[in-house]
């Protein structure tokens, strides 16, 4: 009886030991491929959008492939490989050819220098910064107009990713790119596939300063409109800050509103012109918001507008600005506007040129914001450092348009030019050397105000489809304009036209160092040998050597008698 009990305990002990060993074996096999994560970094996906039914940008978001550098061996199969390309090593011809030839890739990861990081300006030399800016601008133009059937991401250089890339380059130099067989690094982004942004909204913000009417005057006062588009478009929506285009225009408009609010707060210095301030959305998309804003005006207000000045990219010029117009230069209104700016520009030692571009009424495409005014027969002009009309989706605040390339002194000089020109027109001082906004006075331009708003805009992405109606940034603009004007209201509209956008603009990239299959086999062999020895030891100590031998002995055959 005691022998039977001991035998039962032995069987149970043996079974428990076997179960423990088997469980351990399964756990070790399941964990053998992936080791500790080498790094986890923030990444920003290339924009995905449709234009007139055609697909552009990165069409996928999830990533789970091995990594390689630009030193991969010729003829290597990269269909399941993510290429890591630092901007400073970028060969734009290679990328262009790879895209144009529609070669398969597991994905692309571009590493940007810290000078393009909104949170860290970097300390690169001026010539090096300009070189990197030009390379990034060319890359961005290429990517936003391409249809890429794989994930494309951007990240900023740091010590972690630099260490990983150095290891990858070392492995690639041996002629064996990372695969499931050879091991290496695996890049993983476990994110759901992008979805369409349903009914994206755009919000226009309008402020108003009422002029002073003479007693008994029943006529409507003339109006001057100052307008700037505030949203952006770039290769990576989460990084499209647009410090210059059009952060500089927004800052200038807010400072002009602040200056004239001081003048208009006193009846003795209030002009006989209404001032209309417009912060418009949808600028990169054919100035869709400006069009809707203007069409919301009643006929009386529209006819009262003497002229409109649109501010666009005035933050990185040196000594020359351009006034772009749609009406011929010999038009009386255009001559008046240009001569007013020219007189002030000469006093400020600024060179101002005039550019005429006739609009095509049959073509809905507009290159400048003032062209939306011109289509409704309202005199308008755009002040910009850009000498020629940009193409669609160009000069709209992309990756390269960062704080490091914008000079607040240029914005301050631009504010002086516009404010003095307006004031002389409003108060009838044309042609006179009268400085209303002189330095050191109570009406002087405030450089600290300009800098603070420029810094805020330079760290705030503003791609319209991803800004909600009550976005904190939109509310901040409304509050600031309300501090300087009498009447402020918001106009919410649906972004219409030929564009469709997709979400999933940023993610976390996990980088794992993985072992090769050969290493896995050796490890499994060692573990298997260890487990066999452990099993044999447990059997011997619990049941004896004879029982261990009997496990491997062939059992006796039994004859079954049939009835």
Automatic annotation (TrEMBL):
GO cellular component: endoplasmic reticulum membrane
SUPFAM superfamilies: Zn-dependent exopeptidases
Native source species: Hibiscus syriacus (Rose of Sharon)
Record GO biological process: regulation of signal transduction
Annotated signal peptide: none
Annotated keywords: Endoplasmic reticulum, Glycoprotein, Membrane, Signal, Transmembrane, Transmembrane helix
Location in or out of the cell: Endoplasmic reticulum membrane
PANTHER family for this protein: NICALIN (PTHR31826)
Location (main, coarse): endoplasmic reticulum
Sequence intervals crossing the membrane: 521-545
Organism domain of life: Eukaryota
Membrane topology: Single-pass membrane protein
Gene3D superfamilies in UniProt: Zn peptidases (3.40.630.10)
Official protein name in the record: Nicalin
InterPro entries: EF_Hand_1_Ca_BS, Nicalin
Family: Belongs to the nicastrin family.
């Amino acid at each position: 009886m005691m022998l039977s009990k001991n035998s039962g305990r032995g069987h149970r002990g043996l079974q428990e030991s076997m179960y423990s060993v088997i469980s351990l074996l399964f756990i070790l096999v399941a964990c053998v491929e992936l080791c500790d994560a080498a790094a986890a970094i923030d990444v920003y996906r290339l924009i995905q959008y449709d234009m007139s039914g055609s697909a552009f940008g990165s069409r996928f978001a999830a990533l789970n492939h091995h990594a390689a550098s630009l030193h991969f061996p010729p003829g290597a199969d990269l269909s399941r490989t993510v290429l890591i390309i630092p901007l400073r090593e970028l060969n734009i011809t290679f990328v262009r050819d790879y895209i144009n030839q529609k070669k398969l890739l597991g994905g692309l990861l571009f590493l940007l220098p810290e000078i393009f990081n909104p949170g860290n300006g970097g300390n690169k030399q001026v010539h090096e910064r300009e070189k990197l800016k030009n390379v990034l601008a060319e890359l961005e133009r290429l990517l936003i107009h391409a249809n890429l059937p794989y994930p494309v991401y951007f990240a900023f250089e740091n010590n972690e990713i630099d260490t990983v890339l150095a290891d990858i380059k070392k492995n690639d130099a041996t002629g064996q790119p990372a695969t499931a067989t050879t091991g290496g690094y695996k890049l993983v982004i476990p994110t759901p596939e992008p979805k369409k942004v349903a009914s994206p909204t755009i919000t226009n913000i309008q402020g108003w300063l009422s002029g002073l009417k003479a007693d008994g005057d029943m006529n409507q006062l003339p109006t001057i409109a100052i307008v700037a588009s505030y949203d952006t478009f770039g290769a990576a929506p989460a990084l499209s800050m647009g410090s210059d285009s059009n952060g500089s225009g927004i800052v200038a408009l807010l400072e002009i509103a602040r200056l004239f609010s001081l003048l208009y707060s006193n009846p003795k210095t209030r002009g006989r012109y209404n001032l209309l301030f417009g912060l418009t959305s949808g600028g990169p998309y054919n100035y869709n918001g400006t069009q809707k804003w203007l069409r919301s005006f009643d006929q009386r207000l529209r006819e009262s507008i003497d002229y409109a000045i649109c501010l666009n990219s005035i933050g990185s010029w040196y000594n020359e600005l351009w006034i772009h117009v749609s009406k011929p230069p010999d038009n009386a209104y255009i001559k008046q506007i240009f001569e007013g700016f020219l007189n002030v520009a000469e006093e400020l030692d600024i060179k101002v040129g005039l550019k005429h571009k006739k609009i095509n009424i049959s073509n809905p495409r507009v290159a400048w914001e003032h062209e939306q005014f011109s289509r409704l027969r309202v005199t308008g002009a755009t002040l910009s450092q850009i000498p020629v009309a940009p193409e669609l989706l160009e000069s709209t605040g992309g990756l390269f348009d960062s704080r490091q390339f914008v000079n607040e002194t240029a914005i301050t000089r631009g504010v002086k030019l516009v404010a003095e020109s307006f004031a002389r027109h409003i108060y009838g001082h044309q042609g006179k050397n009268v400085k209303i906004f002189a330095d050191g006075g109570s009406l002087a331009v405030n450089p600290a105000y300009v800098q603070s708003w420029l810094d805020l805009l330079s760290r705030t992405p503003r791609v319209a489809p991803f800004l909600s109606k009550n976005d904190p940034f939109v509310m901040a603009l409304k509050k600031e304009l309300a501090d300087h004007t009498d009447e402020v209201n918001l106009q919410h509209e649906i972004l219409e036209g030929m564009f469709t956008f997709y979400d999933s603009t940023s993610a976390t990239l996990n980088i794992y160092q993985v072992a090769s299959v050969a290493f896995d086999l050796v490890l499994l062999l060692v573990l298997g040998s260890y487990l066999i020895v452990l099993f044999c030891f447990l059997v011997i100590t619990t049941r004896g050597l004879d029982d261990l031998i009997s496990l491997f002995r062939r059992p006796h055959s039994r004859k079954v008698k049939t009835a």
